[in-house]
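Entry type: protein chain
Record version: 2
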Amino acid sequence: MDRSHKQRLIIGFLGAPLILLAAWFGYWWFLALVSIIAAFSVYELLKLINYPPRVLMVLALIMTPLCLYAMHMLRLDLVVLILVFTAIFTNISLLFYKKSEYLKMSFVGIGSIIYPGLCLGTMILLRNMQFNGEEIGRNIVITVIIGVFATDIAAFYFGKLLGKTPLFPSVSPKKTREGAIAGFLFCVLFMVLFRIYDFVPLFTGVDYFVVALCAGIFGQLGDLVESKIKREIGVKDSSNILLEHGGFLDRFDSLSVTAPLFWIYMYIKFFL
């Protein structure tokens, strides 16, 4: 086993239990962890594209956890107000920037708050879901997280062992169709196990299958989108803070797509 693989395993074995424990205990623990992940992801994205207005970058990094706190309090109206304030502040700040690239990129900061910031924040909304006074969001968000982890791990290892056909060579040459299929199938397998043990009592087989679709298919598409961004910029990882895992944006790009998609599904099914 080479050194890079050891680093990947160490970070994985340390990070995964931390996230799952925070999701289990919830409340401020989970809010704090998701806020850190979201803020770092926003920062890495803005650094990748050489986001020039430093004041606006700081603004994005402040507003992201504020939005997540409002989501934790289930005050989506406050999230809208924060985004509107950020847009107005950004609009006024254009008066003080003369370079054309500043003008072109001025609203990118607001976009970064939404993706990956608020998209990751939907994990908080999933965690805080209650039905008939029963706190069932804990099991829901853990199901989503494990679905993403199962997909990523299976796609990585089966892609290395059996992968022969490139999945999307112009975006990520190392990803293979065999790995992607294995990732989806392993996610389905975990969802079948969760269904057998009735991990989320509210869920039917269809709900578990939707998790598998969100994590096993759209989550991998989210990974490809982030790979596309890095390829266009010409970098391998969003940062090296997580060693061989790259940065927070690299590690949580799939959750940035899976969590909001499944939250939309849950909201439409149970709240509309």
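Comment: The mean pLDDT is 89.
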